[in-house]
Amino acid sequence: MSNVSYDLDTSGGLMPLIRALIKPPDEEVTTQKTKKPQHPYYKRPGKGHNRDSCDACGEGGDLICCDRCPASFHLGC
After folding, report:
1. What is the number of domains present in the chain?
2. Domain region containing 52
């Protein structure tokens, strides 16, 4: 059986480095990041964003709606 000695001195080691790596960002860093202005299309809460008719043929029915713009299409169009 081997003799293993543990260093129980907590005044050094890797812990300060680990804490520095996982600490939250400083206030200065977060204030520099500006929020991208939102397009007016997405500022209408509660409104239907997509058209009620197909953009290709103009007919209604079962439409596939785009998540990024107001376009709507039939699967076949």
Report:
1. 1
2. 45-76
Helix (H) or strand (E) holding 28: helix 27-32
| 13/67 Cα distance (integer angstroms) | 51
- CA 27 to each of CA 10, 19, 32, 33, 36: distance values in angstroms, whole numbers, following the listed order: 29, 17, 9, 11, 19
- Residue 35 pLDDT > 60: yes
Kindly tell me the number of DSSP H helices and DSSP E strands found in the chain: 2, 2
Beta carbons of 40 and 49 less than 8 angstroms apart: no
pTM exceeds 0.85, yes or no = no
Residue 16 lies in a domain: no
